[in-house]
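Technical annex B. To support the medicinal chemistry partners, we prepared a structural model of the target in complex with magnesium ion, based solely on the information shown next.
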Amino acid sequence: MYLQLNSISKVFKETKKETLQDISLEVAKGEFICIVGPSGCGKSTLLNLVAGLDTPTSGTISLDGQPVTGPGADRVVMFQEAALYPWLNVMENVLFGLDAAGYPKARQLEIAEKYLKMVQLWHYKDYPIHQISGGMKQRTALARALALDSKLLLMDEPFSALDKQTIHILRAELEGIWEKTKKTILYVTHSVEEAIYFADRVVVMAENPGQIKQIIPIRFARPRNIEAPEFTALRKQILNEVSLSARKSVADEFDGPEVNQA
Ligand SMILES: Nc1ncnc2c1ncn2[C@@H]1O[C@H](COP(=O)(O)OP(=O)(O)OP(=O)(O)O)[C@@H](O)[C@H]1O
Ligand SMILES: [Mg+2]
């Protein structure tokens, strides 16, 4: 298996609480995995462990046969708020990582152009970061992540701070980009709708301690129509799964009140 999580557990020293318990997951190369679960169940903690930003208390993680022992160029993380350099423009933000990775100048420019075009930002390449919208910031972060051509893309609610319309546009773009690049993606989201839209498999987590409750393969053809009846039915089923382990009304928390009317 490309990415392998073997019986991961995490106890934070500060709280002595078991945050993650016995998490095992195998991900194939090119697979799009979405992780959903109630707030606080340990989704971000899990992603951080795979990123190597923190270490599991027990268990092992390996990527392409190599043990994960710390952060590495083979894994790129994208967060809810794009972590861009505000003093650089759009293009320079993408070039920065390529430069650090040691690409020759001409090659850096070629790669940056390719990915800025892919995320539809080529015309904004000279804009300073503070002059672009939240959606464009996330596109810049995505271009930067893709440009590094890492083995694994780790995304922690990358679109959740954006407005609905922008989310829909970016979802379709990311889906298209994934089809083209066949990246292996681990994507954390609060939205069950988003998980079914993207995922080959949806990992449903439960809390206290954080664990994998269910793994649901999604077999709908892409691009997926979120209004199709079978889509809505599956969304309800998964929301139900999540709500069994969530403390409070889950539909409100996860997909907004309109889900209840569907
Ligand atoms: N560095 C830390 N030290 C101690 N406890 C932590 C630390 N980081 C996270 N936790 C705890 O671990 C649990 C899981 O947190 P985590 O951020 O992984 O949840 P999450 O599923 O990503 O939640 P959300 O959906 O709200 O983003 C929480 O109870 C949190 O307080
Ligand atoms: Mg989180």
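Notes passed to the chemistry partners:
Residues 43-44, 156 surround magnesium ion (ligand 2) (CB under 6 Å).
Residues 53 and 71 are 6 Å apart (CA to CA).
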